[in-house]
Structures are given as C-alpha cells and as structure tokens.
Amino acid sequence: MTHQEISHHRLVSQKLYKTSPFSPQEIVQHLGAMQAQDYAMAKWAIGSRTDATEKEIEEVINSGKIIRTHILRPTWHFVAAEDIYWMLDLSAPQVKRFTNSAGKKYGYDSKKFDEANAFIEKLLSGNNHLTRDEIMQELNIKKASNDDFLSAAIMMNAELDGLVCNGKMKGKQITYALLEERVSKPKTKLSKEESLAKLAQRYFESHGPATLLDFSWWSGFPPTICKSVINAIELQLSSITIDNQQYWFKQDHTDADNFRESVHFLPAFDEILISYKTREAAILQEHQSKAFTNNGIFKPVIMENGKVIGTWKRTIKKDHAKIETQFFNETETDKKQLIFKGIQSFENYLETKIVIE
User: Fold this and answer.
1) Closest CA to 51 of 84, 27, 86, 82
2) Are 206 and 31 a contacting pair, CB within 8 Å?
3) CATH number 1.10.10.10 given to 82-182
4) DSSP calls for 115-164
C-alpha cells in the first residue's frame, strides 16, 4: 500500500463501493457513528452506501433503529440502536464539559439541568414526541437573540444523560423522545476499557487505514488514551508505516482487486473526509479551502477514484432536484458527462428527476 492508495482503501472500508447489500442500520453500525448535524445530507451519507431510498431511510430513523443524538464530539451523530447505550456511557462525560460550560453562561448548574431533565421526562412520557421549541415553551424558556444557545445546551445535556434522543419527524421538524421508550436498556454494561477497545476496533475496521491522531479526532479522546487502547487491540488489527506514519486497518482488508473506476457525489460532512484529522489522502491541500472551512463547515463533494475533484449542491424543486457543480480544475464536456453518471444513485435515492446545471 502506498500513500496515494490510502483513499482507495478507505472507499472499501467505508462501504462506498457497495460490493454487498447493506441495510441503513447495518451501515450506521458498521461505521460506529456518522456525523449528522445536517439531517438531509446525513441521510444521503447512509443512502450513498446502500440502495435504500430517502423515504426508506427516514422510516428506519423514525422507527428508532437508527438514533440521532449528540455523542463523541459535541455534535449530532447517527448511531445504531444497539450501540447507543455503551457509546453514551463512554463518551458522554467528556462531551458534557461543553454543555456544562454553556450552561454556566445562563446560570445553569448540574442541579438546574437535573430539574430540567425531570420536567422533560414528564413532558415526553408516553411516547409524546415534541420539537425543541415546544419543549422550551413548556419550560417557559423564550428564544434568545444569541442563537438560542440555552435551549440547545438543555437538550444536549438531556441527550448526554441518556434521557432523550430524536423522535419521529413532525413534517419537516425534528422532535425529541425519551430514549428508553425507543431503545430498551441492555441488561449488562461494558467497562470503560471494553468500550474504548470496541470503539477503536470499530473505527479502524470501518475507516482504516487511519492513524492514531485520526482516531483521537474522530472519537474525541486524547492521543494518550488512544495510544493505550490501540496497544491493547493491535493484535486484532493490521498496520503499515508510510512516511514514518503508522496506519491501522482491519486484518482481512482486501487488496487492489477491489478497486475500480468510481465517481461519488457525497454529502456535506461525509465520513470520508470529516472522520480524519488530516485529509491530504483524499483532497489536495490547495483545494481544501474550497471543500471545507477552518471552522468546520464541510460542503458536498465530488470524488473521482478516491480524490475530491469538486463540490456540488442540490436544490429540491416541486418535480425535480437541481444539481449545480463546481470543479476545481477545468473539465472537458465529455469527461463531465462521464462524471455525471455518478449522480444516478442520488436520483434513485430521491426518487425524482435530476437536472444538472
């Protein structure tokens, strides 16, 4: 394996070649956690790895087989229902530092957060799914001018405490529901060491080849802890050193026979970019500012043979979806037509006509 081949291997490990059929929940469980603050794009992150339509993925999320909540880093992720409790037990204490800090600005300490939790539990009990605005109205918390940070901190704290998660969509509005009414608590709990080992192995098998610092960034745990857990599971992984940098990946990782010419129109915040500390394997340094910003805003990208060659955006119309593209380099019309064949899976996913402009 060479440094230039890393991105190809990641396409395999992240199931973007779609060599076998997987259900939406199987894709989420395979990847461990998929960043999901942009809900529409996060659904396509699943869709780009399966043959499921957007409606089918929405049904799986509404059913509670896939949970959307704050976990790992302080942002939303999709997590499989089977993983939600052990992953929350592991990562919630570190993420709660952010909610505790935000709460202090509004006079919220642990006691006030607990009081809010108790009220929210009564409010949502009996499979009562409510939007954040509806919950805040009952808590008598009015929207503030500074982006409503207090309500966000209250609900994130409730998520991290394992009280709430996403409920069923109410039209186009996201709701909250009680987690235990959606997913039953397991009878046994993993130790922190067991959970860390499980998380690390899941990451390297689904995102590898990846480095210690990649795992540290993705998991939110400091490099010292990540180094210890890699040492504990290294016999279950394979590794290769390239340019004095060690990359870890699954033991039975398939070789170049799996590679093929490919074009992918991938969503904003897709794991293929956001789950690594550095992204040079997939996108040239000179183009990175066109695909993501320093403050963490990622655009939808076009990948050809494992390399990002441009960005795209979609606008949903009444009877079609409009796709606009921006390539990093001048691209011939004939080649564009070949590249645009890569949008076919998005058309199938949306179940509507695609118009490219």
Assistant:
1) 27
2) yes
3) yes
4) HHHHHHHHHHTTT--EEHHHHHHHTT-PPPSSTTHHHHHHHHHHHHTTSE
Q: What are the pLDDT digits (tens) for 217-247?
A: 999 999 999 999 999 999 999 999 998 999 9
Residue 306 CB burial class (10 angstroms; 0-12, 13-18, ≥19): buried
For residues 119 and 178, give the distance between their C-alpha atoms in angstroms, rounded to a whole number: 12
Two tokens at 303? 């990948």
CA separation for the pair 15, 84 (Å, rounded): 21
Domain boundaries, the chain: 82-182, 261-356
Residue 120: partners with Cβ closer than 8 Å, 6 or more residues away: 135, 139, 154, 158, 163, 164, 176
The angle subtended at Cα 27 by Cα 353 and Cα 153, nearest 5°, is: 95
Residue 99 sits at φ, ψ, to 5 deg, of -70, -35
Instruction: Please tell me the distance from the alpha carbon of residue 173 to that of residue 170, in angstroms, as a whole number.
Output: 5
pTM of the model: 0.95
Share of the chain above pLDDT 70, in %: 97
Mean of the pLDDT values across residues 139-154? 79
Q: How confident is the model over 45-54, as a mean pLDDT?
A: 97
**DSSP code, position 15:** T
Distances in whole angstroms, Cα of residue 270 to Cα of each of 11, 43, 186, 325, 349: 12, 10, 30, 17, 16
